[in-house]
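BUG: 3D viewer hangs when loading the predicted structure for this chain

Environment: internal workstation, default settings.
Expected: structure renders.
Actual: progress bar stalls at 90%.

Input used:
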Amino acid sequence: MLFRAAAALAFASLGSLAFAPAGAADLSGVPSAAEMPFVKAVSADLGSRFATTAAAESAGYIRYTDEDDTGAISYANRHWTSVDEKHPSQLWYDHAGRLIGADFSVPYVAGKPPHLFGVNPARWSDFDQHIHYGLAGPNGTTTFGATGAKKIVAAGGDPAEPTAANLVAAGIAKSPSDVKFVFEFPAIWDLSVWVIPNANGAFADKNPAVKPVNPPKPGMSM
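C-alpha coordinates produced before the viewer hung:
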Protein backbone atom coordinates (compact mmCIF):
# COMPACT_ATOMS: atom_id res chain seq x y z
CA MET A 1 0.00 0.00 0.00
CA LEU A 2 -0.65 1.86 1.37
CA PHE A 3 2.78 1.94 1.11
CA ARG A 4 2.38 5.10 3.15
CA ALA A 5 1.66 3.14 6.30
CA ALA A 6 3.56 -0.04 5.53
CA ALA A 7 6.65 1.87 4.54
CA ALA A 8 6.53 4.10 7.57
CA LEU A 9 7.27 1.02 9.67
CA ALA A 10 10.07 -0.19 7.44
CA PHE A 11 11.64 3.20 6.94
CA ALA A 12 11.64 3.89 10.67
CA SER A 13 14.27 1.18 10.93
CA LEU A 14 15.95 1.89 7.59
CA GLY A 15 16.66 5.53 8.32
CA SER A 16 14.71 6.56 5.22
CA LEU A 17 11.45 8.40 4.74
CA ALA A 18 8.70 8.88 2.22
CA PHE A 19 7.94 12.42 1.18
CA ALA A 20 5.10 14.21 -0.55
CA PRO A 21 5.47 17.33 -2.71
CA ALA A 22 4.89 20.79 -1.31
CA GLY A 23 1.21 21.49 -0.84
CA ALA A 24 0.21 17.91 -0.08
CA ALA A 25 -0.53 18.72 3.57
CA ASP A 26 -3.11 21.27 2.47
CA LEU A 27 -5.08 18.76 0.41
CA SER A 28 -8.20 17.03 1.66
CA GLY A 29 -8.52 13.30 1.06
CA VAL A 30 -11.69 14.07 -0.89
CA PRO A 31 -11.16 14.04 -4.67
CA SER A 32 -11.77 17.22 -6.60
CA ALA A 33 -14.22 17.31 -9.49
CA ALA A 34 -11.27 16.88 -11.86
CA GLU A 35 -10.05 13.83 -9.93
CA MET A 36 -13.39 12.04 -9.62
CA PRO A 37 -13.31 10.43 -13.10
CA PHE A 38 -10.04 8.69 -12.18
CA VAL A 39 -11.38 7.48 -8.83
CA LYS A 40 -14.61 6.17 -10.34
CA ALA A 41 -12.82 4.48 -13.24
CA VAL A 42 -10.23 2.65 -11.16
CA SER A 43 -12.76 1.64 -8.51
CA ALA A 44 -14.99 0.00 -11.09
CA ASP A 45 -12.21 -1.52 -13.19
CA LEU A 46 -9.98 -2.87 -10.44
CA GLY A 47 -12.94 -4.03 -8.39
CA SER A 48 -14.02 -6.11 -11.37
CA ARG A 49 -10.63 -7.53 -12.38
CA PHE A 50 -8.99 -8.00 -8.98
CA ALA A 51 -11.84 -8.70 -6.59
CA THR A 52 -9.85 -11.51 -4.92
CA THR A 53 -6.24 -12.14 -3.96
CA ALA A 54 -6.30 -15.14 -6.28
CA ALA A 55 -7.08 -12.83 -9.20
CA ALA A 56 -4.18 -10.59 -8.19
CA GLU A 57 -1.78 -13.52 -7.94
CA SER A 58 -2.89 -14.83 -11.33
CA ALA A 59 -1.97 -11.44 -12.77
CA GLY A 60 1.51 -11.57 -11.26
CA TYR A 61 1.04 -9.71 -7.99
CA ILE A 62 2.68 -11.16 -4.88
CA ARG A 63 1.94 -10.41 -1.26
CA TYR A 64 4.88 -8.63 0.37
CA THR A 65 3.59 -7.15 3.65
CA ASP A 66 1.67 -8.01 6.76
CA GLU A 67 -1.45 -6.00 7.59
CA ASP A 68 -0.58 -2.37 8.31
CA ASP A 69 -2.29 0.08 10.62
CA THR A 70 -4.81 1.03 7.94
CA GLY A 71 -5.96 -2.58 7.60
CA ALA A 72 -4.23 -3.07 4.24
CA ILE A 73 -2.17 -6.04 3.10
CA SER A 74 -0.13 -5.13 0.04
CA TYR A 75 0.56 -7.02 -3.17
CA ALA A 76 3.03 -5.79 -5.82
CA ASN A 77 3.52 -6.82 -9.43
CA ARG A 78 7.10 -5.44 -9.39
CA HIS A 79 6.38 -3.30 -12.46
CA TRP A 80 6.91 0.24 -11.25
CA THR A 81 5.63 2.24 -14.20
CA SER A 82 1.84 2.50 -14.32
CA VAL A 83 1.31 3.17 -18.00
CA ASP A 84 -2.38 3.92 -17.46
CA GLU A 85 -5.23 3.65 -14.96
CA LYS A 86 -5.55 -0.08 -15.59
CA HIS A 87 -2.04 -0.89 -14.41
CA PRO A 88 -1.51 -0.25 -10.69
CA SER A 89 1.85 -1.32 -9.32
CA GLN A 90 0.25 -2.43 -6.05
CA LEU A 91 -3.10 -3.69 -4.80
CA TRP A 92 -4.31 -3.76 -1.20
CA TYR A 93 -6.60 -6.29 0.42
CA ASP A 94 -8.08 -6.46 3.89
CA HIS A 95 -7.74 -9.45 6.23
CA ALA A 96 -10.77 -11.09 4.61
CA GLY A 97 -9.29 -10.83 1.11
CA ARG A 98 -11.44 -7.92 -0.07
CA LEU A 99 -9.86 -5.48 -2.52
CA ILE A 100 -9.74 -2.08 -0.83
CA GLY A 101 -7.18 0.04 -2.67
CA ALA A 102 -4.28 0.41 -5.05
CA ASP A 103 -1.06 2.28 -5.75
CA PHE A 104 0.07 3.68 -9.07
CA SER A 105 3.71 4.55 -9.63
CA VAL A 106 6.31 5.96 -11.99
CA PRO A 107 10.11 6.18 -11.65
CA TYR A 108 11.26 8.99 -9.40
CA VAL A 109 12.58 12.20 -10.95
CA ALA A 110 13.55 14.79 -8.35
CA GLY A 111 11.27 17.80 -8.22
CA LYS A 112 8.94 16.48 -10.89
CA PRO A 113 5.84 14.83 -9.40
CA PRO A 114 3.70 13.27 -12.13
CA HIS A 115 0.91 15.07 -13.93
CA LEU A 116 -1.16 11.97 -14.64
CA PHE A 117 -4.74 10.74 -14.57
CA GLY A 118 -6.10 14.22 -13.82
CA VAL A 119 -4.81 13.92 -10.23
CA ASN A 120 -3.23 16.85 -8.41
CA PRO A 121 0.57 16.30 -8.56
CA ALA A 122 0.80 17.10 -4.84
CA ARG A 123 -0.93 13.78 -4.10
CA TRP A 124 2.08 11.79 -5.30
CA SER A 125 4.60 10.74 -2.63
CA ASP A 126 8.18 9.73 -3.33
CA PHE A 127 9.99 6.71 -1.93
CA ASP A 128 13.66 5.84 -1.75
CA GLN A 129 15.08 2.66 -3.20
CA HIS A 130 14.93 -0.26 -0.76
CA ILE A 131 14.55 -4.03 -0.66
CA HIS A 132 11.61 -6.28 0.29
CA TYR A 133 11.82 -9.96 1.09
CA GLY A 134 9.87 -12.89 2.47
CA LEU A 135 11.43 -15.59 4.63
CA ALA A 136 10.11 -19.03 5.42
CA GLY A 137 8.31 -18.96 8.76
CA PRO A 138 6.87 -21.69 10.98
CA ASN A 139 4.15 -23.98 9.63
CA GLY A 140 4.47 -22.77 6.05
CA THR A 141 4.04 -19.09 6.89
CA THR A 142 6.02 -16.18 5.45
CA THR A 143 7.83 -13.57 7.49
CA PHE A 144 7.84 -10.29 5.56
CA GLY A 145 10.61 -7.74 5.88
CA ALA A 146 12.46 -4.84 4.30
CA THR A 147 15.97 -3.45 4.38
CA GLY A 148 17.91 -0.55 2.93
CA ALA A 149 19.83 -0.63 -0.32
CA LYS A 150 23.08 0.15 1.54
CA LYS A 151 22.82 -3.10 3.47
CA ILE A 152 22.71 -5.09 0.23
CA VAL A 153 25.71 -3.17 -1.11
CA ALA A 154 27.62 -3.87 2.12
CA ALA A 155 26.82 -7.57 1.63
CA GLY A 156 28.41 -7.46 -1.82
CA GLY A 157 25.16 -7.28 -3.77
CA ASP A 158 23.46 -5.04 -6.29
CA PRO A 159 20.30 -3.38 -4.85
CA ALA A 160 18.74 -3.42 -8.32
CA GLU A 161 19.06 -7.22 -8.37
CA PRO A 162 19.14 -8.44 -4.77
CA THR A 163 19.58 -12.17 -4.18
CA ALA A 164 18.94 -14.71 -1.46
CA ALA A 165 22.69 -14.99 -1.02
CA ASN A 166 22.84 -11.24 -0.32
CA LEU A 167 20.30 -11.64 2.48
CA VAL A 168 22.40 -14.41 4.00
CA ALA A 169 25.56 -12.31 3.76
CA ALA A 170 23.72 -9.40 5.37
CA GLY A 171 22.68 -11.60 8.29
CA ILE A 172 18.98 -11.34 7.43
CA ALA A 173 18.47 -14.97 6.38
CA LYS A 174 20.19 -18.09 7.68
CA SER A 175 20.14 -19.93 4.35
CA PRO A 176 19.23 -19.10 0.72
CA SER A 177 16.58 -21.81 0.97
CA ASP A 178 14.81 -19.74 3.63
CA VAL A 179 14.24 -16.89 1.17
CA LYS A 180 10.86 -17.14 -0.55
CA PHE A 181 11.31 -13.93 -2.51
CA VAL A 182 13.44 -10.80 -2.60
CA PHE A 183 13.03 -7.78 -4.85
CA GLU A 184 14.05 -4.18 -5.31
CA PHE A 185 11.50 -1.47 -4.59
CA PRO A 186 13.06 1.31 -6.69
CA ALA A 187 12.85 5.03 -6.12
CA ILE A 188 9.38 6.00 -7.32
CA TRP A 189 6.60 8.55 -7.26
CA ASP A 190 3.58 6.80 -5.75
CA LEU A 191 -0.16 7.55 -5.73
CA SER A 192 -2.44 5.70 -3.27
CA VAL A 193 -6.20 5.49 -3.74
CA TRP A 194 -9.00 3.65 -1.96
CA VAL A 195 -11.25 1.77 -4.40
CA ILE A 196 -14.01 1.19 -1.85
CA PRO A 197 -16.13 4.01 -0.39
CA ASN A 198 -14.27 6.12 2.14
CA ALA A 199 -16.00 8.78 4.22
CA ASN A 200 -12.66 10.59 4.47
CA GLY A 201 -12.13 10.58 0.71
CA ALA A 202 -10.46 8.25 -1.77
CA PHE A 203 -7.04 9.84 -1.16
CA ALA A 204 -7.21 9.84 2.65
CA ASP A 205 -4.59 7.99 4.68
CA LYS A 206 -7.15 5.82 6.45
CA ASN A 207 -10.66 4.52 5.87
CA PRO A 208 -13.01 4.30 8.88
CA ALA A 209 -14.82 1.41 7.18
CA VAL A 210 -11.65 -0.74 7.31
CA LYS A 211 -10.76 -2.07 10.74
CA PRO A 212 -7.31 -3.66 11.18
CA VAL A 213 -7.44 -7.11 12.76
CA ASN A 214 -3.71 -7.58 13.42
CA PRO A 215 -2.19 -4.10 13.22
CA PRO A 216 1.56 -3.71 13.81
CA LYS A 217 2.64 -3.06 17.36
CA PRO A 218 4.26 0.31 18.20
CA GLY A 219 7.94 0.24 17.37
CA MET A 220 7.58 -2.85 15.21
CA SER A 221 9.35 -2.79 11.83
CA MET A 222 8.45 -4.68 8.70
